Amino acid sequence: MGKMDTAGIGIPGMCPVGTDSLLGISRQQTNPSRWHGEKWRDFAIAIRARGIDLREALATRGIFATDAGGTAYGLPHGVVIARSAAQIADLLKAAQTYRVPVTVRGGGLTTEGESVAFGGVLLDMTGMSRVIAIDATAQQVRTEAGIFWHSLAEELRRDGLDYLSAPLNLTSSVGGTLGVGGIDVNSARLGCSADQALALQVVTPTGEIVECSDKEHPELFRRVILGYGQFGVITEATLRVRPYTPLRMHYFHYDSLRLAIEDLQMLDRNDASDYSGILTIMDCAVNLLVAFDTPEREAVFNSEWLSRLRGYGEFGFALCMLRRYALRPWKLAEAWYLWQRKRDLFPELQRPEYMRDGTMLDRTVVFSRAVWKFWGGRQMVIPDLATSADKFVEAVERGNAVCRRYFPRYTLYCVGIKLRPEHREHYEMSCIPADAEGWAYGCEFEPMVGDAVYSRDHFQSFKNAIYDIGVDLGASYYRFGGMMKGYIRRVFGDALVDRHLAFKRQVDPAMILNRDVIF
Amino acid sequence: MRSVDVVIVGASLSGAAAAKRLVDAGLETIVIERKQLPRHKICSGILSPRGHRFLLENFGPLPPQVLHEPASCRGVTFHFPSMVSMPMDFFGGTTPHLHRKYSDHWAIRQSGAEIHDQTSFVGLQDHGDHLIVSARSRGEPVEYRARLVIGADGPSSLVTRALYPDYPQSIPWFFVCQKFHRIIECPLDPQYFHFWFHPGLGHYTWSHARDGRQIVGVGFKRGDNFARKHRNVVDYLADKHGVRLEPEDDDDEGCGENFGPSLINRYVFGKGNVLITGQAAGFLNMIGEGMSCALHSGAISGEAVVEARLRNRPVQEMYRRMIASEVRRTSDQWNPLKVAFDRPHEADFPAALMALSWRDRAKVMRDIWRFLVLYKEFKWGRQILRAALQRPVLGGYSMQRWL
Predict the structure, then answer these.
(1) Residues B147, B184: one domain?
(2) Last residue of one domain, picked from the residues B273, B298, B332
(3) Alpha-carbon gap: B37 to the closest alpha carbon of chain A (Å)
(4) pLDDT higher for A363 or A96?
(5) Average pLDDT for B315-331
(6) What is the assigned CATH class of domain A26-127+503-507?
(7) Is the same domain home to B199 and B123?
(8) pLDDT confidence of A9, banded at 50, 70, 90?
(9) Which residues of A touch B92 (CB under 8 A)?
(10) What does the pLDDT read at residue A450?
(11) Which CATH number fits the domain that encloses residue B100?
């Protein structure tokens, strides 16, 4: 066989047709080339000599070939299951020496390939999933970072406690969530999930084990929180927790996105509810969820705020839909879909085993089950926009128009995120837009892919169309890493990105940790 | 016999894109290429902005060695017999002017696949769960055992012929040929690709600058005379546009083109465990740019293999469902309703048309109609119209017409 001549061309250099020649968004390689594997053997020998179990079987590596997004694929050269901070420190020291990329993965629920290893080592954090200590008096928990939120909830529940906020699914990890943000239906009151971190144990890319918080190594703490895994591996976290309460749910139905969002923002501004969010079936059925921890809060809502909401009850909304589709008989398929969806979904949110006296006993389980059952799929494609409160309606309406163009069925999920002034520095170069005051608002645009099959280019075009709105509005994104990283400099500006890059180079000289995610 | 997951036939851009997807997912992939790499490729090299984006996002920054001079192209200029000219900038800004010999070599290397050049595809045998690919490597017979084969070997695809021996006889064939001239004086803007809607010149007539010379190219139905056609165009350019060129150099070149499948939604995607992609499948954008749809369709063929394995579904089913988006993009460009009421191209023809005076607009429309009449003999009109009417009803183009 004539193997190709390796000399000659292919040397990267200055391209006369620069990436900026593509108007709008300057492009870069977002689907990385596989790491070439140089010094892999030496590295493998070195880490095995330190007692690290490195798994190289194809079957093991193949498990991690993609993430929840299913649009980025890559195979690590080897997999290491995380066991301790010391083990990870040894691994990262060797990785610095041999310049081997290390990709860290928690629940693997990234959508843009951020937890996919394009060669090198994949560090599977789910091996570190113990709860270390629960302090009910101080309302704090110390846990290993590879634990899934629902496992943490289970442990906390035994002491009558609950986490503050976490993503609405079962299998995202604590460490991964703290690294990117995390939103919940109570974020409008309690902030994003990363805000509940009080202190972290971090293994830096050069292999030092550092305890950090706002007081201890604050610079590292600020960068690791919402840092997309660039500045260290979170191995343990101390989180603020709260007393567990069952939930009193209310649903209001709208046929207008704008009205529902305005009502959501009105509730948030007035601290009228403990939980609030919007979940839609396309833009036809817009559901505002409102919930309360205590009967007292619910009573205040009923007396002061309920009458101001412009949504319908179930019967009123049914009449509204009847009128709408009577005038648009050609949209009967859409009406049938709405009806089916409502018929299947609503009982799931009120299953008798999770309800008592009209209150929801375990929102983690109820919401997680529903999310996976009704919104999950083999491929999760969820571009998002995060804006200040005043730009949010426009962002959602424009994003909705893009969804209509690309997919027959989709859902929108909108929540507010209460910003903490003391965490302003944590939010730098994150999903929290720089111009947001008081609250930021996020909307996820999720096509209902189901059994349909689309090319990756179709998904990518859809995501680009949503993200272009963000550039236009000066918004931010929750998922700006991996395949969407072409938007980072455009949104955050060169000065800020370069400052973070300088810090990255300082703490990770060989640029080995999660290297294809942001920079 | 070498046993691999996938054999890709053809080390072109579609082959590179397919290889990239397969290698990323950990599938053992061999690309066989008839010629020695880097190999010459007949092509204008003017990539569309969408193709440029694909190259950047998947293979990284383009090295300067993979570009001709001028390194970029700003847009397309349409010329009409009535001497109206319509320059149109690409939506995405300037695009690269690829030197296909080196760009294809660079892309296939970036894909990470194992490459066997000077290895010609001869034939294949389907054994149900695997295929035996016969080839000749430097004159010696060689065989590969593969789970799947991807044919990415261009319009005159040998893989397509192996599956459908009668296919080449069932479609009209064109030849596109180009000659290179040193420039004495050329008023045509070197930043644009120039195209003539002139039925008297040929079915496809173009010119642009490359490495200090001017390309004069013409496409015509198989059987016509290249030298006569070319001389006719050179004389026309001199007479009407004041283009003064030295006699052509002796490195003229040409190749066969399957021009029709994109127009009439008659693509060839293979059967069983053999996928056909790129221009072999019939993808060709309007004004004959095939690279961007070759890249995207090639990538989709690779994705289909990965998805089929993950979902345990037949690969043909996956491929045909996934390729629908690329078929829409490509066939939309030929769809008269889309051209009239949407913007399926990467340059704004309606806006350029509206910028003309009423009189010139009328001339342009008349000239376009006269040009289209040139294609009357192929009887594509009804098929294009049927596809255009299907588009809003089905939300796409009928899969029933695909081979």
Answers:
(1) no
(2) B332
(3) 7
(4) A96
(5) 93
(6) alpha beta
(7) no
(8) very low
(9) 21-24
(10) 80
(11) 3.50.50.60
B117 touches chain A (CB under 8 A): yes
Is residue A327 within 8 angstroms of chain B, CB to CB?
no
Q: Where in chain A is the domain with CATH 3.30.465.10?
A: 131-244
Q: Express each pLDDT in A328-349 by its tens digit.
A: 998 899 999 999 998 998 888 8
Task: Please state the rounded mean pLDDT for residues A238-247.
Answer: 94
Chain A residues touching residue B59 (CB < 8 angstroms): 29, 33
* Distance in angstroms (rounded) separating the CA atoms of residues A287 and A183: 18
pLDDT in tens, B127-179: 988 999 999 998 899 999 999 999 999 988 999 999 999 888 888 888 888 89
Q: Name residues whose C-beta falls within 8 Å of residue A209's C-beta, 6 or more positions apart in sequence.
A: A85, A86, A89, A201, A202, A203, A235
Which residues have C-beta within 8 Å of that of residue B346, sequence separation ≥ 6? B48, B49, B50, B90, B91, B92
Asked whether residue B351 is assigned to any structural domain, the reply reads: no
Give me the CATH code for the A248-483 domain, please.
Answer: 3.40.462
Q: Is the pLDDT confidence value at A13 over 50?
A: no
Give yes or no: residues B45 and B193 share one domain: no
Among A240, A237, A242, which Cα is nearest to A131's? Answer: A237
Q: Does B53 touch chain A (CB under 8 A)?
A: yes
The closest CB to that of A19, out of B61, B108, B395, belongs to B61
Q: Would you say residue B337 lies in a domain?
A: no
Token pair for residue A114? 């951020």
Verify that B241 and B275 share a domain, yes or no.
no
The verdict on B67 and B129 lying in the same domain is: yes
On whether ipTM exceeds 0.90, the answer is: no
Quick check: helix, strand or coil at residue B182?
Answer: strand
B248 in the same domain as B157:
no
Q: Please list the residue range(s) of chain A that carry CATH number 3.30.43.10.
A: 26-127+503-507
Six-digit token string for A476: 């931010």
Q: What is the mean pLDDT of residues A224-236?
A: 95
| Contact at CB, A28 and B303, closer than 8 angstroms | no
Of 3.30.465.10, 3.30.365.10, 3.40.640.10, 3.40.50.720, the CATH number of A131-244 is: 3.30.465.10
Closest CA to B48 of B291, B249, B399: B291
Domain that holds residue B153: 2-74+96-170+259-332
Interchain pair A62, B21: CB under 8 A: no
Query: In angstroms, how far is the first alpha carbon of chain A from the final one?
Result: 38
Residue of chain B with shortest Cα separation from A451: B311
Q: Select from B274, B267, B329, B262 the least CA-distant residue to B304.
A: B274
Extract the tokens encoding B229: 């056609």
Q: What percent of chain A has pLDDT over 70?
A: 95
Chain B residues 332-371 with a CB less than 8 Å from chain A: none
**Tokens 């990284």 found at:** B60
Residues of B in contact with A379 (CB under 8 A): none
Task: Report the C-alpha gap between A300 and A270 in whole angstroms.
Answer: 12
Smallest Cβ–Cβ distance between A455 and the set B72, B142, B300 belongs to B300
Residue A28 contacts B where some CB pair is shorter than 8 Å:
yes
Contact B20 A31 (CB under 8 A): yes
What percent of chain A is predicted at pLDDT more than 90?
73
Q: Is B58 on the interface with A (CB under 8 A)?
A: yes
Say whether the peptide bond before residue A16 is cis (omega within 30 degrees of 0).
Answer: no
| Closest Cα in chain A to B141 | A1
B23: left (phi over 0), alpha (psi -120 to 50) or beta: alpha
Establish if B36 touches chain A: CB-CB under 8 angstroms: yes
Choose, out of B53, B100, B332, the residue to mutate when testing the contact with A (most A CBs < 10 Å): B53
- Tell me which of B325, B332, B342 to substitute to probe the interface with A (most A C-beta atoms closer than 10 Å): B325
* Cβ contact, residue pair A17, B62, below 8 Å: yes
Q: Do residue B7 and residue B39 come from a single domain?
A: yes
